[in-house]
Design goal:
alpha+beta, 2 helices, four-stranded antiparallel β-sheet, two-stranded antiparallel sheet, about 90 residues, Arylsulfatase, C-terminal domain, single chain
Length: about 90
């Protein structure tokens, strides 16, 4: 397991219409020496939630986890810090 220092998590809820379509809001956080912003929090079709990293020009992702293990670790840390039922960060 990697030691990914995820900290300073901030959540901005999406509007009512966006939430009805599965976009719950956006997260920004620090991972090590980097600040990540504009990460979408989405509801999965079969339940649960996931993070979607922003897509840049030509369909490339300028910042993304290096593999599924890293993505899961970031999601775990972020979701531990936000309380979606209350609409924000714990």
């Amino acid at each position: 397991m990697r030691d990914l220092q995820v900290s300073d998590v901030r959540f901005t809820p999406a509007g009512t219409e966006e939430q009805a379509r599965g976009l719950l809001g956006w997260v920004s956080c620090s991972v090590g020496f980097l600040r990540l912003d504009g990460i979408a929090v989405r509801r999965r079709l079969r339940g649960g939630r996931t993070l979607s990293f922003p897509k840049g020009r030509r369909g490339r992702f300028p910042v993304r986890p290096i593999d599924d293990e890293a993505r899961q670790a970031i999601e775990r840390d972020v979701f531990d810090d936000i309380d979606l039922d209350a609409g924000g960060v714990r």
